[in-house]
Specification:
single chain; 152 residues; alpha+beta; 23% helix
Length: 152
């Protein structure tokens, strides 16, 4: 995993990104209820989609959104989704992807990066987000955790 890099999603990488296999039980956490309800409020032009490559192999994908004018705090500078292939989990791929998105947020003038996720169980992404510095601020109206990573 020494050769990790982020690239824009392309026709060449889309099929591999869409077929990433997660660990059993993680599928239920891919899209929290808050994001499912807010999907129509997200501008397609605000999306930031990248794949994580290890050499030539797609091992992860991250989707962020940047919309400073969005009325929903959860959607201004946010991780929308981060998926890491089961075979690559625990080796820094997710951390690498989130750090790339955080750097993009800083470059765009944001002071923090947010994420919404469903809490609970060993398969929840909660431990991952806490390990890289996200702090839960509150629950959303749908019971998801709203967490923040300060970029300052």
């Amino acid at each position: 995993m020494a050769d990790l890099r982020l690239e824009e999603l392309s026709a060449t990488t889309a099929a591999a990104a869409n077929s990433l296999t997660l660990k059993p039980g993680q599928e239920q956490f891919v899209q929290p209820s808050t994001y499912a309800q807010a999907e129509s409020d997200v501008k397609p032009s605000s999306a930031w989609t990248r794949v994580v490559l290890d050499g030539d192999e797609v091992v992860g994908m991250i989707i962020g959104t940047f919309d400073a004018d969005n009325s929903e705090e959860e959607l201004r500078s946010a991780i929308w989704r981060v998926n890491v292939a089961a075979s690559a989990q625990g080796r820094g791929v997710g951390r690498f992807a989130v750090h790339g998105l955080a750097e993009e947020a800083r470059n765009r003038g944001f002071e923090r990066l947010t994420v919404v996720y469903e809490p609970g169980g060993d398969d929840s992404p909660e431990a991952f987000f806490r390990a890289i510095g996200f702090e839960v601020l509150r629950e959303t109206q749908y019971g998801d955790h709203f967490a923040v990573l300060n970029l300052g």
